[in-house]
Amino acid sequence: MKEELENILKEAHQLEFEIKTLEDLENFRIKFLGRKGLLNNFVEKFKDLPREERAKIGEYFNYVKNEIKKIYEDLKIKLEKPKKIKFDIAHPGEKIEIGYLNILKESIKKIRETFVKLGFDIEKGREIVTEYENFDSLNMPKFHPAREMFDTLWIKNKIGKDRYLLRTHTSAHQVEIIKNKKLPLRVAIPGKTFRHEATDVRHEFQFHQIEILGIDGGANLQELKGVLEIVFSEFFNKKLDVSFKASYFPFTEPSLEVYIKCVICNGKGCQLCKNSGLLEVGGAGMVHPNVLKEAGLDPKEHYGYAAGMGIERLVMLKYKIDDIRLFNSQDLRFINQFRL
Ligand code: PHE
Description:
It is a single chain. The protein has helices spanning about 1-15, 20-35, 40-45, 50-80, 105-115, 130-135, 175-180, 220-235, 290-295, 310-320, 330-335, and strands at about 120, 130, 155-160, 160-165, 185-195, 205-215, 240-245, 250-260, 280-285, 305-310. It is an alpha+beta fold. The protein folds into two domains: about 1-80, no CATH class; about 105-340, BirA Bifunctional Protein, domain 2 (2-Layer Sandwich), CATH 3.30.930. The structure holds phenylalanine. Phenylalanine (PHE) binds near residues 285, 306 and 308.
């Protein structure tokens, strides 16, 4: 009896390839699956078998029936003309999430744009620099006590004689840039910097700076002050005066600390600015003669200014962020607040 079923299936498989129209398909259906078709006929026959055998053959019967149904359904889909796709023009579309820049990157972009408007070139440095670039070239030879200011992350492997480190400041690129660019020059160098610090709400292992460098062509502190005032005012969307205070850096002379009017209390004095009405936002000065010499320039004929600002601090002030560690936390509750 099983053989009979096998033959039915075989025949169905053979016929499968001869079916070209829906009419052929209907004949196929009637022949095999119709009320008086081959399969139903078979049922009539095996109804009278003993129980056990019936169960066995029944299983195979079901298999054959399913196979033939499958042939039928597949052909039906193939032969029926594709239905016209109906669509509802009023149906709301699926929302596509568009990515956006992290608030830090977005802020750096904005600051960069201001520098470009002022005629500055934007340069990119490297995060790994040599000891020479980060220190010696900036008038900080080995054992210079000012190296202490920078909690340096050294890289173990030397390449040749050079020791490598993660740049502690974007000033590391000053000499190389002065050497390679035509004078007079105005450049801004944004980038990530690293210091081996214990982290807390105001200190991070890695943070961003932007270096500002102007050589020749009237590059004096008055110009630098004007440039910084425009950059800060554009960033905070309000007029902000910049003031300088004497300071010390080995690579500038004179050296200055850069202050803006406290953006929280507008200079009246508050907890953040410790009642001074001022906030420190960076370091600056006139490029030290030794640095100019290192870049191959005669300090009697050439001159320039340099400044460096930390970016996280500015972003924290603008958006009232109270913990610098949030920037690297990858916490979406934080990140998603700043979709500008
Ligand atoms: N590189 C200094 C720092 O990171 C800042 C600075 C830059 C000071 C340029 C003077 C001139 O602290």
